[in-house]
Amino acid sequence: MRVSELVAVSGVPLATVKYYLREGLLMPGESSSATQAEYGEQHVRRLALVKALAGVGLPLGKIRVVVGLIDRPADTVFETVGRALSALPPYPAGGDDGDHPRARAVLERIGQVYDPSYPVVAQLERALAAAESVGLPMTDDRLDVYARHVRAVAEIDLDLMPTDSVENAIEYAVLGTAIYEPVLAALRRLAHQDIGAERFGTDTFDDLASADRQDRS
Amino acid sequence: MRVSELVAVSGVPLATVKYYLREGLLMPGESSSATQAEYGEQHVRRLALVKALAGVGLPLGKIRVVVGLIDRPADTVFETVGRALSALPPYPAGGDDGDHPRARAVLERIGQVYDPSYPVVAQLERALAAAESVGLPMTDDRLDVYARHVRAVAEIDLDLMPTDSVENAIEYAVLGTAIYEPVLAALRRLAHQDIGAERFGTDTFDDLASADRQDRS
Fold first, then answer.
1. Interchain contact, B193 vs A165, CB within 8 Å
2. B147, B110 Cβ separation under 8 angstroms
3. Which among B127, B179, B184 is the nearest to A130, CB-wise?
4. CA angle at A103 for the pair B131 and B155, rounded to the nearest 5°
5. Model's pTM, two decimal places?
6. 8 Å CB contact between B40 and B1
7. Distance CA B86, CA B65 (A)
8. Rounded to an integer, what distance in angstroms lies between the CA atom of residue B92 and that of residue A188?
9. How far is CA B96 from the centre of its chain?
10. In chain B, which residues have their Cβ closer than 8 Å to the Cβ of A122?
11. How far apart are CA B38 and CA A189, in angstroms?
12. DSSP secondary-structure letter at B9?
């Protein structure tokens, strides 16, 4: 197809398509004459991916990292996908590569590797510090339940990952990691509501306080 | 304590304390003379709560809703806590109270009540629509696993909720809902990494693709 058709099919404006071509986010078309190039399905797909990555919050520089890994993967699946995932926000603040004591303690307890250079470890440390600062530090009983069930969620995420091509795997890993976070957050809030209705029904705070006193007596 | 001590103990500047008093976010102190008032532990605690609520992203108007519910709870625990939780971001866009077909289908499948007026239902609908738009629509196999494990997470959240006072319950529900979302998101990403290392080890994409071909033959 000609570039005008690519614009029509992808819904990405011509100026943006040209910009992506210049920036190497979109691979060049096949020259059909001195001034024209032919585009195909891979271009439509790449434009959809770039659009989706921008939609989950990746700035252009990080989108370049992701599509660069599709075009030139690292030696192993693990390293390729891992590097692509590092492109996801939130990004560590400058100088955030020190020790992460809360994250280390959590990862040791749940038996996972602690690697302070991995951006998500800094993200976990910040989240744990924020919980502490509002008087709700992570406790072992909460952590054990969270870790077990989050792992089960992560298992199905990996079960469903396509591994037939680099592009499919990277696209799924990056988009799936980002796109299901708000789904999981909303499901948790709705489960709170559902369980709350079950447990408290029409109880007043006085009912609960007297039940609480009975528990302790 | 005098207001100067309250400022020192809470770390909230005098101008802000005065603003919170005017806005009704902080209850007045006990007048000790025409120009002075005495403050106590409840004021220190309230300032800490207002600070924490601002820290998890609540604008002042929503913080007023939360502290208003502590001071004047609704008839039941469920309604009081539910209204306090509605103060949490993300806030529904205007006109977002229509039908939410994706959220409805999901909630019907997992056996939970569908109430389109509840803000989290709109949040779930948006998250599901976003997943669909990047080519990763929620499937039943994924949903069944997500729902089961998210519910277990929500159960421990409610197990650990203090019910001895309105203030403790609301504070825990609002802050805990917000503050553990990024913890859960970081744990999921770290579990992906851990399981990925286990499953793929040092596999290349060629290894996986040939394994994939064998599976299908």
1. no
2. yes
3. B179
4. 60
5. 0.91
6. yes
7. 9
8. 17
9. 20
10. none
11. 39
12. H
3-state SS, residue A200: helix
CA atoms within 13 A on the CB side of B28: 7
Reduced 3-state DSSP string for A73-136:
CCCCHHHHHHHHHCCCCCCCCCCCCCCCHHHHHHHHHCCCCCCCCCHHHHHHHHHHHHHHHCCC
Peptide bond into A90 cis (omega under 30): yes
Report the length, in residues, of chain B. Answer: 217
Best CA proximity match to B44, nearest among B76, B18, B12? B12
Q: Determine the distance in angstroms separating the CA of A102 from the nearest CA of chain B, rounded to an integer.
A: 11
Q: Do A180 and B124 meet the contact criterion of CB atoms below 8 Å apart?
A: no
A54–chain B Cβ distance below 8 A for any pair: no
Find the DSSP H helices in B76-204.
Answer: 77-85, 101-109, 119-133, 140-159, 166-200
Amino acid identity of B181? E
Contact call for residues B169 and A206 (beta carbons, < 8 A): no
Backbone torsions φ then ψ of A38, nearest 5 degrees: -100, 135
Q: What is the ipTM of this complex?
A: 0.92
For chain B, say whether A166 makes contact (Cβ under 8 Å).
yes
Alpha-carbon gap: B33 to the closest alpha carbon of chain A (Å): 34
- Taking only the tens of pLDDT, chain A with its 217 residues reads 999 999 999 999 999 999 999 999 999 999 888 888 999 999 999 999 999 999 899 999 999 999 999 999 999 999 999 999 999 998 877 655 678 999 999 999 999 999 888 889 999 999 999 999 999 999 999 999 999 999 999 999 999 999 889 999 999 999 999 999 999 999 999 999 999 999 988 888 888 777 766 665 5
Supply B146's token pair.
């997500």
